[in-house]
Amino acid sequence: MKVLVVLAHAEPQSFNGAMFRTAVETLEAAGHTVATSDLYALHFDPVSDRRNFATTKDAAYFKQQIEEMHASEVGGFSPELEAEMRKVEEADLLILQFPLWWFRYDCRCFFLLLSTVDQM
Known about the structure:
A three-stranded parallel beta sheet has the order 2-1-3, sandwiched between helices. It has a single domain (about 1-115), classed as Rossmann fold (3-Layer(aba) Sandwich), CATH 3.40.50.360. The protein is α/β, with parallel strands linked by helices. The protein is about 40% helix and about 15% strand. The protein contains four helices and three strands.
C-alpha cells in the first residue's frame, strides 16, 4: 500500500515528531511504500497567491479559480505544489500528524491549497 504521512509541527523532537517517525518506520517495516511531507521542514506557506502558479492566465487580474483551472489544463502549478499534489493523489492511505493548538489544526491549510478547483 502507498502511504503518505504528513507532519505539521515546528519541533522535530516533539511527541508529534516521534509519532511521525514511528508511523513511517512501522509502515516501512510492514512492507508499505511510504512518502512523507514535513510541512515545517518544507517551509510550507498556506497562503495561496500567484506564487502557486508557474503560468498565468491573466497577468492583469488575479482570480484564484481561473488560475487554478488554467494551471490544471497546462500543468502550470509551481513545482513544489505539484509535487505535494502528486503525493496526495498517489496515496492509498493518508495519515495526518499534528497537534491541536487552541482547537485548530495546521494541516487544513495544506489540503485547502492542494484542493484546487480542477485537481481533486
